[in-house]
Design brief:
By secondary structure, this protein is mainly α. 73% of the residues lie in helices and 0% in strands.
Length: 66
Amino acid sequence: MVHPGLAASVVPEVWTAVREPDLETFRALTALADGAGAIRAQVVAWDLLIGSGRSRSPAGSVSTRW
């Protein structure tokens, strides 16, 4: 529930960055105070999603040893 809270004030900017991704749009979004937080929350959400998928994979298909 963190991501919607951080992204609520920058919804138009986030939508533009998602709909038409380019470097300048991304830079403009991260320059906003709430935009940087929204990007960070999205990265953490993806990290948690990928991590949960690794822990649910069948035994032996993905090595969990580093």
